[in-house]
Amino acid sequence: MRLWSVFRKTMREFSRDKVMLLLTLIFAPLFVFLYYQFFPGGSTSYLVLVQNLDEGYLAPDGVQWRAGEQVIAAIQEVTYANGQPLLRVREVTNRQEIDAAIKKRQAVAYLVLPADLSLVLATHRSATGAASSRVIFGGDLTNPYYVVAAMLALTAMDTYVQEASGVHLPLQYIEQAAGASAARSEFETYVPGIFVFSLVMLIFLAAMTVAREVDSGTLRRLQLTPLKAFEYLAGVSAALVLVGLVSLLLTFYTAVLLGFRSQGPLWAAILIGVFTSLAIIGAGMLVAALSRSVSQAFVIANFPLGFFMFFTGVIYPIPPVKLFSLGEQIVSLYDLLPPTHAVAAFNKIFTLGAGLSEVAYELVSLAILSLLYFWLGVWFFARQHLR
User: Fold this and answer.
1) For position 183, what pLDDT does the model report?
2) What is the CATH number of domain 44-179?
C-alpha cells in the first residue's frame, strides 16, 4: 500500500513538472518525424555522374547501336522494392565537372564510359574478336555512401553488358532478403533504433526525479515515516516504467502514421521495453546516488547516455569486440550495455517478423542485465541517501 502511495506521489510530481515529462515523451517521436523528413518518400536516392564518351556502332544491317545510352537507362532502373529510385543519373561532359561535384559531395560516385563501348560489345556478340575496353569509375572513398552507389551502378552495368554482348558468367547470383528487409525503406531501417532511444531518454527523468527528492529534503522527511527503502524506490520505478512505455508507444504510433510497417508482435516489443526501462532506471539511480542536486544529476546523466547512444547500435552499427563465446553465440564487450540487446530484438521483431521465442537470447540477456543494473542502482542509492 505504501508502494502505491509513492507511485501516486511520483505521478503527481511528473504532472507538476510538465515540461520535463513532455520532453521525455515527445523527444523520440520528434526524431521519428525528423528522420522521415530526412528521407523523402522513405528512402535515399544516390546521385551517380556519368560521362558518356561512347561513339556508338553502326551495324552491317544499318542499325545504330548506342550502348552508352542503354547503360545509363539500366542504372536508372535500379529501384527499391517499392519502386522508389535508388540511383539517379546526371550526365556530365568533362572531368572537371565530375571533380567539382564529388568534392562538394553533390554526387556519390561517377562512371566514365569509353568511346569504343558499343564497338567492343558488338564484336563479342558477333564472336569476331576478343576486344576489351576500360570503364573508369570512382568517387570519394571516405563518403560512406560511395561503396553502395558504386556497387549498384556497376552491377546494373555488368548485367546490361552480359545481356548485350552475349557473354555470360558461369555462375548466377540470386539475392534472397531476410524477412521483409528488402521491402523496407531507409526511413524504416532507422526506426527500431529510435524506439530504443525513446527508452534511453528515461535516464534524465529517473536521475532528476530522485535527485530532486534529495535536493528538496523530501527524502529525509520520508525516512521519518515507516516507509521502507524498497517501497520508495519500487514506487518511483513503477511510475518511470509507465512513462517509458507511454513514450515507446507514442514513438511507435508516430512511426506507423508516417509509413512504418511492423512485421512482428507489438506485445513482444513492449516486454523488451519493460526490461530496457528497468536497466535505464537503474543507471539513473546510480547517477542520482552520485548527485547532490538536480542540476548535477542532469550533467552526470550525460555520461552513461553517451555510452547508451553511441556504443549500442542505437545511432549506427558497432563492430563487435569479442569477449567469449556461449556455444555459437558470441558475447561482445558492448553486450554489457542493455540497449545493445534491445536494438537487436527490436530489429528482429519489427523488420524480420520474429516472435518472442526468436528473441529469447536478447530477452534473457536484457532480463539479467536489467536486474543487475536496477539492483546496483537501488543498492548504491540506498547506501548513499537512505541510511
Assistant:
1) 60
2) 3.40.190
